[in-house]
Amino acid sequence: MNPVVKFLLILVVSLEMTFVLNYQVNLLIIVTTGLYLLFSRLSWQRYLLLVMMPILPALGAWTSFSIYGTRDMAIIMVTRIIAYIFLGAAFSYTTDMILLLDTLEQRFHLSTTFVYGLRGALTFVPRVRQEIKIIRTAALMRGESLSFYSPQLFFKAILVSLRWSTRLAEAMASHGF
């Protein structure tokens, strides 16, 4: 499916869901997107994440609307939260972002500079993850343990990111962007 069409379809369904206060519509969206995700053959970790992710927000909405509102509104809000999460997963888990950016550039005449910058940012994220693993490994070799909230880890990752951003800016300038 064309990624832009998928994005627009999910956007329209989300807007429709925002203005319709009907839990049956939300359940229909949950079932439809759930089947779509099942047929997409994702990894079991993603399915587990999809089941676990809405628990806390749904519990919070249920508690809040049950105490300060009506039970019907609580049901609507809980199903709406789950439907939004399923819609987001249907887009993010099954869409290639590079293909989406290429389609936006070619068919919808999005600025080439903007697309190039987004592509750079999308390739930047896996590099940062890899660099954090390298920094942690180097720290372990020195006998230090860096947790995910360690200021040393953040500082070193920011320094590496600044170096990469300078290189990316130079590459964009050399290509005429």
Question: What structural category arises from helix and sheet content?
Answer: mainly alpha
Distance between the termini: 30 Å
Mean pLDDT: 88
Radius of gyration based on Cα positions: 21 Å
The helicity comes to over 70%
Number of helical stretches of at least 4 residues: 8
Report the sheet with the most strands, covering strand number, pairing sense and barrel closure. none
Strand content: under 5%
**What is the overall shape?**
extended
Helix and strand run: HHHHHHHH
Low-confidence stretches: none
Oligomer: single chain
Q: Give the total of beta strands.
A: 0
Summarize the structure.
By secondary structure, the protein is mainly alpha-helical. 81% of the residues lie in helices and 0% in strands.
Helices and strands in order:
Layout: H1 3-19, H2 23-39, H3 44-52, H4 55-68, H5 71-92, H6 97-107, H7 112-141, H8 151-174
Helix pairs in contact: 1-5, 2-5, 4-5, 6-7, 7-8
Characterization of the model:
- The structure is a single chain.
- The chain is mainly α and 177 residues long.
- The protein has eight helices and no strands.
- Helix 7 (112-141) runs antiparallel to helix 8 (151-174).
- The longest helix is centred in the C-terminal third of the chain and has 30 residues, at 112-141.
- The two termini are 30 Å apart.
- The relative contact order is 0.09.
- The mean pLDDT is 88.
Key phrases:
single chain; about 180 residues; mainly alpha; about 80% helix
